[in-house]
Amino acid sequence: MDITATTVPRVRRIHRGLFLRNLLYVWCAVVFLFLMAPLIVVFPISLSSSEYLQFPPPGWSLRWFEAYITDSTWIDATWRSIKIGIWTTLLSMFMGTALSFSQVRGRYKGKSIINQISLLPLVVPMIVYSISVYGLFGYFKLIGMWQVIVLGHTVHAIPFVVIIVSAALRTFDITQEQAAMSLGASRATALWQITLPQIRPSLVSAAFLAFISSFDELVVAMFLGGSNMTLPKKMFDNIVNEIDPTIAAVSVIQILLVSLILIIVSKLGAGATPSQ
Amino acid sequence: MTEIDKIKLGSWWRRNRDNATSMFAATPAMLFLSLLYLLPMVLLLSQSFEGSSLQHYRKALTDGLYVQVLLDTLMIAAYVCIACFVIGYPVAYFLSIAPGVWSTIGMIFVLLPFWTSILVRTYGWMVILGRNGIINRTLLHTGIIDTPLALMNNITGVVIGMVHVLLPYMIFPLYAVMRRMDKGLAMAAEGLGASGWQVFTKIYFPLTLPGVLAGVTLVYVLAIGFFITPALLGGGKVPMIAVLIEQQVHTFLNWGFASALSLVLLTATLAVYAVLRRVLRGNMQWT
Fold it and tell me: CATH assignment of B48-280?
């Protein structure tokens, strides 16, 4: 058997395989750089001493961090967004988790319609939903109250919670709960002490996603907030009016916070990504 | 109620207790969504028919200016969608085959921007793409160009910014499908003499198709309703429909027309979503 007849094409193929593999690595490196670039560039800008967006910065200072901390409108907006985010998380976790149990455990008519309705807010564009609730709350003269922003954000957070928590419940072994109940635990005790602790990683992920979805949300808050600005609205105005690089300092703080929270969430349990 | 009725009711209750509890668990969310989601949407629908019934729709769908915005929106969303697919497919593949550490590091590069506020990222792009931004400064400094390139306040800037925001939505469903795929299938095809190209086009790619469809639809649906990126990186020169709607409400206080435009946008979105559900037969692979 002529050995070259089979090895030459194979060697060529391995060479081409290596070339393609290296091409893939280079491609991914470029894409990762593309993804990280806008996050990286705000760091030097935030430390710039210049009033204007200048690159490279003419000098270094912490004045924009100082500007953020000492300006009460920025701090008020931040606290308002945190407050709205926490309420949104609590409400959507309560309703979304209950709905997930209902979806996974129940067998009743109309279940799939309920499922469709609960997921619909993911599909409907934010701007469309915003002007529809703007109309509703405007009619009742409620525009400008932070509580109505919570309601709007909760509508959008519920689908995230439902998707993550019901995925976890589907894989949960229900016999554990039944075992607890046959040993004398009440339904509530079994739920609280057996089921919920086991799906804790997913609950943490869902809560994180709910909070972030509210904390970063601009459009609903822009319509419903009136003069009571949330942090994203304040940032938006700052960017549009090109006021000063305080926005860069705020961005840096947010990036660092998100990194920190990502670490905490991944420590508390897997499932922080939609795909895992 | 007689004793027998009570017993009947009791046994009905025992049989159906779990289902009744389940239905009860759905009520808070359903009440909430009905009042704060379905009701306002219905009100919006009725608002769009105010005045001489269809006048707003006639304006939205026949006035050249608004038709152009609608078409531009669909086209920009298509650019973004294609770019996300071409860029994201190899990356998802890399993440699915890379050994542990590299896969994790790659995932962090995708997740960190994903979790970061869109406003922060858009601001970052303004720093990079602006007239005095990093790219223009570098190119001017090195003498490659004499006048700054227009990378922002046009479609280019908007597409770059939107691809950055939406790329993870393409990568996640692709990654989920690729991770679950049986590697043996591609190896078997190779063992039977298929070339690398044949393995890809005949085996690998068709098997990732559910992920491709989920990603493409997700990105397209999100892209046509986008507001922040076109508003900031478009600089008022790239009117996408969401920006137009916001303008109609805040600047022109034209409620009826804004409602009609919203319904047009909603219809387009739901149509795309319906196609997705049909194609995937309700099996949302990426979740």
Answer: 1.10.3720.10
